[in-house]
Amino acid sequence: MTSLQVDEHDGNEAAGSAADSDEGYQRGLGARQIQMIAIGGAIGTGLFLGAGKGISKAGPSLILAYAIAGLVIFFIMRALGELLMYRPVSGSFSEYAREFVGPFAGFVTGWTYWLFWVVTGITEVTAAATYMTYWWDIPQWLSALVFTVILYGANLISVKLFGELEFWFSMVKVTAIIGMILICAGVLTIGFSDAGDTASVTHLWSDGGFFPKGLGGTLMTLQLVMFAFLAVELVGVTAGESKDPKKTLPKAINTVPWRIAVFYVGALIMILSVVPWTHFQPGVSPFVAAFEEMGLGIGAAIVNFVVLTAALSSCNSGMYSTGRMLRDLALNGQGPKAFTKLTKNGLPLIGTTFSAALMLVGVWINYKAPGEAFNYVVSFATISGMWAWIMILVCQIRYRAKADRGELPQSTFKAPGAPYTSWFALLFICMVIVMMGIDKDARISLYCAPLWGLLLSVSFLVLKKRNPQSAAFTKADRKRRRPLR
Helix H segments across 275-419? Predict the structure, then answer.
C-alpha cells in the first residue's frame, strides 16, 4: 500500500469514528451474546424439521451432505470475516456489493436479504405453529398469528434484550442437542429404552446402504441442507451493535466448523444409529420421532418444546435483521426515508414494523394451506438467502485482488485458501441452484426469482432517475467505515 493510500486509510478511520455515532445504534451486544447468536443461527427449522424430509430422501447419506455443505459455509463465513475486518458496516452484504460490484448490486442485495428474512420469518412461524399441534389441536394460523405479534413486541424494547433473548434461546437449543447426543450414546452403549436392543451404528449402512436412494437422492437434498445453514451470516449484520467486534466476530466465525460437526453431523449420526432411517417421515421432526421410537414420551415432549424455541429464535432474528437492512438501504437513498428513523433506544421501529406486517402473510398461508405451508416457502427462502452468500464471495474475491495490488488496506482476518476456496464455494452454490431446478418442489423459487429481479430492476431505474446520487458509490461512501473498537 502506498503512502497516499495509507493516509487515505487513516483518514477513513477518523471519518468512521464520527460516522459511528451518527449511525445511531447502541453497542449492546456482548461477546457471549454474539457467540450464541452465531451458534443459534445455525440451529433452526432446517435441522429440526427439514432434516426429516432430507432423511426420507437420502437416508444416512444426508450426513455427508451436511458435512460437505458445512465446509462450504465455513469458506463463506471466512470470506465475510475478511470483509468485516476491512470495513465493518451495519449494512454488511449490501454495502460490500455497492462497493465491489456496483450500486445496483447493492440495491438488489439489500432488498433481497430483507426479503429472505421476511420469507424465513414466515417459514419459522409456520414451523412453530406445526410444533404446537403436537400438544394441542389448534389451528396453525392462530398459533402463527400469536407468535408473530409476541416476537414483534420483543423487538421493540432494546437491542440488549434482543441479545439476551437470543442467548437463552440458543442455550436451550445447544443444551438440548448435546443432551440428545448423550442419551443416544447411552442407548448405543448401555442399551436402555425400547430401542436399546436394536440400536447399532450398522443402521448407517445396513438398511439399503449409506446411499439407499443413490447419489442422485443425496444431491437432491442439497437445497434443504443449504436452507438449514441460512442465517449463519447474521453475525455480519450485528457488526454495528457489537461491543468489541474486532474480537467477537472472528471468534464467532471460527466456531463454524465445530458447530456443524456437533449439531448436524454428530447429532444425525447418533439419531440414525439408534433409529433406522426408514422410520422417519417428512414433516416430522427426526428428534421428536427418535425419542418416541425409544419409548421416551417425556423426552419427545421436551424436544418438541426445544424445536419450538428454535423456530421462534430464528423468527426473532429475522425481525431484528430486516429492520437494520431497511434502514441501511434508506441511509443510502435506496429505500423510503422513513426507515432511517430510530427510537430513543436506537431501534429501527418503522422498518421492523413494516417487516412484521408482511410476515403476517405467513398467517394467511397457514390458514389457506396448513399442510404445504412449510414446503412453499422453504425453496424461495433458500434462493434469496443464497444470493447474499454469492455476493459475499464475489465481493471478497474482488476485495482481495485490490488489496493484493495495494489499492485497499489488507484485512486483519484473511480467509485461508482464498480466492480458490471462494471460487469453490461459488461453484457449489451454482450446483445447488441446478439441483433446485431439477426438483419439482423447489423449482417454484426459480420461477419467482426472475420476477423479483425484474421488479428490482424497474425500481432501481426509477430510483436512479429521481436520485442519481443513490445510484453511485463515491469516496464518501467508502469513508462510512465503522472502526473496530
Answer: 286-293, 297-331, 349-359, 361-368, 373-404
Among 222, 215, 224, 231, which residue's Cα sits nearest to residue 432? 222
Averaged confidence pLDDT in the chain: 79
Contacts of 273 (CB under 8 A, 6+ apart): 184, 188, 199, 200, 201, 203, 204
Nearest Cα neighbor of 105 from 395, 340, 382, 385 is 395
CA distance 247 to 229: 23
Q: What is the pLDDT of residues 64-105, one digit of tens each?
A: 999 999 999 999 999 999 998 888 776 577 889 989 998 899
Would you call 29 helix, strand, or coil by DSSP? strand
d(CA 161, CA 138): 30
* Range 190-197 contact pairs with CB under 8 angstroms and sequence separation of 24 or more: 193/294, 193/295, 193/296, 194/293, 194/294, 194/295, 195/274, 195/275, 195/293, 195/294, 195/295
pLDDT tops 90 at residue 429: yes
Cell 445453514 -> residue: 229
Q: Is the link from the previous residue into 419 a cis peptide, with omega within 30 of 0?
A: yes
Can you tell me whether residue 345 is helix, strand or coil? coil
- Distances, alpha carbon 202 to alpha carbons 52, 184, 191, 233, 302, in Å: 20, 14, 15, 36, 28
DSSP string, 133-188: TTT----HHHHHHHHHHHHHHHTTT-HHHHHHHHHHHHHHHHHHHHHHHHHHHHHH
pTM: 0.84
**Interatomic CA distance for residues 352 and 211, integer angstroms:** 44
Is the pLDDT higher at 470 or at 334? 334
Cα gap 324→335, rounded to integer Å: 12
Task: Report the share of the chain in percent with pLDDT over 70.
Answer: 79
Q: Residue 94 to residues 145, 152, 341, 384, 448: CA-CA distances in angstroms?
A: 31, 24, 19, 13, 21
Rounded alpha-carbon distances, angstroms, from residue 473 to 101, 239, 410, 460:
10, 21, 20, 14
Phi, psi dihedral angles at 450 (to 5 degrees)? -65, -35
Residue 158, all three cell numbers: 432494546
Q: pLDDT tens for residues 43-54? A: 766 677 678 888
Q: Which H or E element spans position 468? A: none
* H/E element, 214: helix 214-219
Question: Higher model confidence: residue 482 or residue 459?
Answer: 459
Specify the DSSP class assigned to residue 469: G
Mean pLDDT of 192-199: 76
Map residue 192 onto helix, strand or coil: coil
